[in-house]
Automatic annotation (TrEMBL), chains A, B:
Keywords: Signal. This is Substrate-binding domain-containing protein. Its main location: other. InterPro entries: Peripla_BP_I, SBP_2_dom. The keyword Signal applies. PANTHER family: D-ALLOSE-BINDING PERIPLASMIC PROTEIN-RELATED (PTHR46847:SF1).
Length: 333, 333
């Protein structure tokens, strides 16, 4: 009986020593050694995602990626943002987030310059910042993760070429004052010029990101160009507007952008032939990964002080063509 | 005594139940839940990096990044490659690597098409492949991680503009038949046109990636254009050749590319004013990260089957300008 007691005692001792070693890691070890045996943070390490128009369903899948990465890395996340498309409101939200000193902030820059002072303040205070979806090229943020809009426009161009069998008149409805949308148009035009000389872009109109304005623009186009075969719209709200305009002209094909509910339903019923899905989940997932690496200084140690950037400065999150065949996968789960 | 024995017994039971739960995770759980509490692989999970010219010091820092990621994720790595710049030899090495079914392969494609059959074979066999440094755009690889050469050329252009105070004659020595180098020249030219109308590019010559040929090209340029103020070389071997040509013409400034030992020494002694360092460590580090995510299916589950790409298709690993001020950091540690 005493022998058994001894064996039990030894076993418990071994367990305690093991536990002690496991939990008492030296906090002054270098970052790589501390992470030895897996990338893992602390649950009270909080990363914040900040956007404008917080209710917009576009952000949902980005947040899902952000949360999936947090689960994988054992850290916490929070989602904050302005309710409206309002730079002042968004700056205020960002200032509040910075004041609470989170482990990192991922921002969709609603303005290419307006948030730069707040971003500077965060980085100065040692809070890593990455940008996703919309860039602010002159800011202090470490990385931008988003769609290569020129390439997305090229993808749309190739889809259009296939759809029309390489010939016919097409129109474009876009936002001529927004850089992202200009790039989409530029990529589309380049592919037409290079690969489809028999497709003519006969009209480019401003849809103002509005359903009714885009509908009107599409109707004007169809009236002015009776031979029109298809329309490319560079954003989703316009796409839905164009969709409603062509209800009586079913021979007009549409290629649209993004995957909000209205667009997906029109893809499903065949009104929209194809729409381009952005890599939203990847934007969120890799934003958190990069913030985690910056927070834990998991970058090339000796270079961090001199390199323009200790992380890849740009990540192209890709494009997927959505058609009737795969549309079911894009409805939010 | 019996009471104590009972307490011990209960403690051991608790420990055993805990251990059992800890180690007997259901292999059919989804990937995210399996990773709960940190990204961590198995030590017998082997990832292989494959290049051409295995002895070239350029690969060293990429391998360092690959190894650092492996340490962080608790997996193993191996480095293989062809000794020469030889497509047949490299294909053979790659076939041998594929036959051993590693967890993933990162490849620098020495040819934009020649390795596509081998890459296809690997991906068909369920082995994830990513490409770094040199792309094969039509291959089945999931991701390309490398320098945006057009942007690198623009960075070189801005350095040149500053160096010459915005005016003077410059020459370029490059490899006109290689796409990467054409892009560097294109970016450089674009910046001159856009920002420095008083800088004239008077000559573009082929340095053939050879020290002596580049030296001769530089000497010809200096003779033909006595007003020449500077030379931009798009690759390192040429840069060292140009450096030796200007020993007697110290007023000629040089901007070069990459950070091999010869180039760094010429930056240090002032012969080369600036050279562009590629984000080599990042290429290796993030290649392994992406392979790890593919191997463990840590991508958006429902999208993996339909998305053109479950991961970001392109990662720009960035550029850092190296001058006398920061050159010490770039010597291999």
């Amino acid at each position: 009986m005493k022998k058994l007691l001894l064996v039990y005692g030894v076993l418990i001792m071994i367990f305690m020593v093991y536990s002690y070693n496991y939990f008492s890691k030296d906090p002054y070890m270098n970052a790589w050694d501390r992470m030895d045996g897996g990338l893992r943070g602390e649950i009270d390490e909080k990363y914040v995602m900040v956007t404008f128009q917080i209710g917009n369903e576009y952000w949902k899948n980005i947040l899902k990626g952000f949360e999936d990465a947090a689960q994988a890395l054992n850290v916490s996340v929070e989602y904050r943002g302005s309710t409206r498309y309002d730079l002042y409101e968004m700056s205020t939200v960002l200032e509040q987030v910075i004041a609470r000193k989170p482990a990192g902030i991922a921002i969709s820059a609603m303005d290419a310059e307006g948030l730069n002072p707040a971003i500077h303040k965060a980085v100065e205070a040692g809070i890593p910042v990455v940008l996703f979806d919309s860039n602010a090229p002159e800011s202090d943020a470490y990385v931008f993760l988003g769609t290569n809009n020129y390439e997305a426009g090229r993808t749309a161009g190739h889809e259009m070429g296939k759809l029309l069998g390489g010939k016919g008149e097409v129109g474009i409805i876009t936002l001529p004052n927004q850089n992202n949308h200009q790039e989409r148009v530029r990529g589309f035009q380049a592919v037409m010029k290079e690969y489809y000389p028999n497709i003519a872009i006969v009209s480019i109109k401003d849809g103002k990101g509005d359903k009714l304005v885009s509908k009107q623009a599409a109707e004007d186009m169809m009236r002015d160009y009776p031979e029109l075969k298809a329309i490319f719209t560079t954003e989703a709200t316009g796409g839905v507007g164009v969709g409603s305009a062509v209800q009586n002209y079913r021979h007009i094909k549409i290629i649209s952008f993004d995957t909000d509910l209205g667009t997906l339903d029109l893809v499903k019923d065949g009104t929209i032939s194809a729409t381009l899905a952005q890599g939203t989940w990847s934007m969120g997932y890799w934003s958190l990964q990069y913030l985690f690496h910056l927070h834990h200084r998991l970058t090339q140690q000796e270079m961090a002080e001199v390199a323009a950037n200790p992380l890849p400065p740009y990540v192209d999150t890709g494009i997927t063509v959505v058609t009737k065949e795969n549309v079911e996968h894009f409805y939010a789960k």
